[in-house]
UniProtKB/TrEMBL annotation:
SUPFAM superfamilies cross-referenced by the UniProt entry: Metallo-dependent phosphatases
Domain of life according to the entry: Bacteria
Phospholipase D N-terminal domain boundaries: 41-130
InterPro entries: Metallo-depent_PP-like (IPR029052), PhoD-like_MPP (IPR018946), PhoD-like_sf (IPR038607), PhoD_N (IPR032093), Phospholipid_Metab_Enz (IPR052900)
Limits of the PhoD-like phosphatase metallophosphatase domain: 142-555
Gene3D superfamilies: PhoD-like phosphatase, Purple acid phosphatase-like, N-terminal
A matching Pfam family: PhoD_N
Protein name from the UniProt record: Alkaline phosphatase D
Organism (species): Sphingopyxis terrae subsp. ummariensis
Length: 684
């Protein structure tokens, strides 16, 4: 794209385009003095392509509704080689957030930028990087992260990421950070009411204006509430440093709207409520605080969101994909369309999907399902979850009239309903088209929440350990709620990869607060196992996970499946063995502490799709994608209870590499695992 095309395109959408000069650079003419107090949330950049990027800051002003800032972009941190400078608006209507679209940049190039007000007060200096051209053959390297719980932890992983990147060789430096959701947690605890949770201190994020109390949490009820939560998260110094150091590519998950929400529904306890104005508010706050190229219904202009007017109204009718047809629901969800793709050199097509805006209601969360509860067991019989997920398409269009689990049976309430969808019709069609048309070496699907099955083999529990006999046919899953529970839809995508012979298919996810590495497979034993790609899940930046929660479980016959607690020894997370190797392996290790004896009892059919799982992992993952190989490295930090006192973000628990050579379509991919440092014996 040349300057004329860029400027015309910018003018057509109401943006003051900023065009950089690639031919000349000159010293800054601005009288700049850094004053971070006036730019309290720092700076950020997002969604780079090979010639442009979105820059961001926030400069609150006490008077007026509109002001202007000057943005400068340079090839050096001292701004002696400025390539672009322009005025850009900052509006009260956008909570004084400011975005600038800068074009004319060189590909795969580091730039520095800053914002300056009319009195010469300036933001901190930011650093960003443009994407390589689509024909650039160099390997691509990026980090992927999720789940910043500033309320309950420290964001030390970002400090570690920056510290390592600053010391990395030129060909090992990161190009961007992919944030796969839960950038904020809209559920906020107040420390005067809940000073601690698990072993953690609850940190003060201030009181949410007009908040609603749900249990021990407070949640936003309007735009002001979401804006407060975003500011409180970005006020964290490690988040601010990371956003100033690297461009972020972001996709929201559930907490950007509501913990158990979907479409325009919120759910607290057993009560489901329509919340169309809240959905719009959540979308607007995300757009204001996350620099990106997402589409919004009010147009592509970067100055402000311009929310549509919607009313809270009952959502009672649904289309064949489970999407509420009520007009306010459609308008609210459609106020922002976040799914999108970014090409990053010859080797990476990054395909991001939104897994909460279009999903149908969870089919397991219906009153009829309560009759099939599995008593004391922590898992659900996999076969009944597959039946209700598949609906009328189950078993090749021959679903059973009755669902029978053990000695319990109910009418199949899903027999005449469509298969469950998380993606929705239009997004799924887009995803399929993007996968089949991509020419990149690696097609990397950012699925935000986990695609890898989380199951175990309760049929192998010792007799008498649980009062009632396991009612399932064989395996039990830990429930739906993420992409791994959408059996039919996930298989539909994976079958497309197989049938169209799509090479280099990889999924990356977050949300589970745990590290996982394995294979993308449409089915597991006894239904067969034929992987079509690779799958990775990153541990949380700071949010607590199941492994940590298990440390506080009451003593019971099943607690050894989750955690081994021995006097004088830190808790060990046997849940990793339960998921990867089966219940006998976990019980053996809980009793003896002998990892070799535990591995000897592995059930090879419980998790052939897994090479690694750590349900208590925090940190980030780094992908290196080249012409022939892809590597994902898990960088696991110690539990981030308090902010690290050293620049490196504190010590590591482990660093583990998972590497694969490109495989031929139809062949099985193979991960090679290497423990670079630390101890991960219960995870491998």
């Amino acid at each position: 794209m040349d300057r004329r095309q860029f400027m015309a395109g910018a003018a057509s959408i109401g943006v003051s385009g900023i065009w950089a000069s690639r031919l000349s650079a000159a010293p800054s003419q601005m009288a700049w003095r850094e004053d971070r107090r006036l730019f309290p949330q720092g700076v950020a950049s997002g969604d780079p392509d090979d010639h442009s990027i979105v820059l961001w800051t926030r400069r609150p002003v006490d008077v007026g509704d509109r002001h202007e800032l000057t943005v400068e972009v340079a090839l050096d941190p001292d701004f002696r080689r400025v390539v672009a400078a322009a005025r850009t608006p900052v509006l009260a209507a956008a909570d004084w957030t400011c975005r600038a679209l800068v074009g004319g940049l060189s590909p795969a190039t580091v730039y520095w930028y800053r914002f300056i007000d009319d009195k010469g007060a300036g933001s901190r200096i930011g650093r960003t990087i443009t994407a390589p051209r689509a024909d650039d053959p160099r390997p691509v390297r990026f980090a992927f992260v999720s789940c910043n719980s500033v309320n309950e932890g420290a964001q030390n992983a970002y400090a570690r990421m920056i510290w390592e990147d600053q010391r990395a060789a030129a060909d090992r430096k990161l190009g961007f950070v992919l944030h796969l959701g839960d950038f904020i947690y809209e559920v906020v605890e107040y420390p005067e009411e809940v000073p601690h949770r698990y072993s953690r201190t609850v940190y003060d994020l201030g009181h949410i204006p007009d908040a609603r109390k749900v249990g021990n949490f407070y949640v936003p009820t309007n735009l002001a509430g979401y804006r407060h939560v975003y500011r409180a998260h970005i006020d964290d110094p490690d988040i601010q440093d990371a956003r100033a150091y690297l461009p972020f590519v972001c996709m929201g998950d559930n907490h950007e709207f509501s913990w158990q929400g979907w479409q325009s529904f919120i759910k607290y306890g057993a009560t489901v409520e329509p919340a169309q104005p809240l959905r719009v508010a959540a979308n607007q706050a995300w757009w204001e605080y996350i620099p990106s190229r997402v589409r919004k219904a009010s147009g592509a202009a970067l100055e402000q969101f311009s929310p549509p007017a919607v009313e809270k109204a009952a959502i009672d009718t649904f289309d064949d994909d489970g999407f509420g047809t009520e007009i306010n629901n459609r308008i609210a969800v459609g106020s922002m369309t976040a799914y999108r793709a970014l090409r990053y050199g010859k080797h990476v097509d990054l395909i991001l999907t939104d897994l909460h805006s279009y999903k149908a209601a969870d089919p397991t969360d219906r009153p009829e399902a309560a009759a099939l509860e599995s008593g004391d067991y922590p898992v659900i019989p996999q076969e009944w979850l597959e039946i209700v997920d598949g609906g009328r398409d189950y078993a090749g269009g021959k679903p059973p009239a009755v669902i029978a689990i053990g000695d319990k049976s109910i009418t199949n309430y899903r027999k005449d309903e469509p298969a469950h969808t998380v993606l929705g019709r239009e997004q799924k069609a887009w995803l399929k088209a993007r996968l089949t048309q991509s020419t990149a070496t690696w097609k990397i699907w950012g699925a935000t929440n986990g695609t890898l099955d989380m199951r175990t083999d309760p049929q192998n529990l010792p007799a008498g350990l649980v009062k009632d006999r396991w009612p399932g046919r064989d395996y039990g899953t830990f429930g739906g709620g993420d992409m791994s529970g959408a059996f039919a839809e996930r298989a539909e995508i994976y079958d497309l990869v197989r049938d169209e012979k799509i090479p280099g298919f990889v999924t990356v996810s977050g949300d589970r607060h745990s590290f996982w590495a394995g294979y993308a497979a449409p089915a597991l034993p006894p239904a067969g196992f034929a992987p079509v790609g690779l799958s990775f899940i990153t541990g949380s930046i700071s949010a607590p996970g199941l492994g940590e929660a298990a440390e506080f479980f009451k003593e019971s016959a099943l607690r050894p499946l989750y955690v081994r607690k021995v006097e004088g020894v830190p808790p060990e997370h046997t849940i990793n063995l339960t998921i990867k190797r089966g219940v006998r392996s976990a019980l053996e290790y809980a009793a003896s502490g002998d990892i070799e004896a535990a591995r000897a009892l592995t059930n090879p059919d419980v998790a052939p799709h897994l090479e690694f799982v750590d349900m208590a992992g925090h940190g980030y993952a780094v992908v290196s994608a080249g012409p022939d190989t892809i590597e994902t490295e898990f960088v696991c930090i110690v539990r981030p209870i308090a902010r690290a006192t050293t620049p490196d973000g504190g010590p590591l628990r482990y660093r583990v590499s998972h590497r694969a050579q490109m495989w031929q379509p139809g062949a099985r991919p193979r991960l090679e695992q290497r423990i670079v440092e630390g101890d991960a014996k219960l995870s491998i």
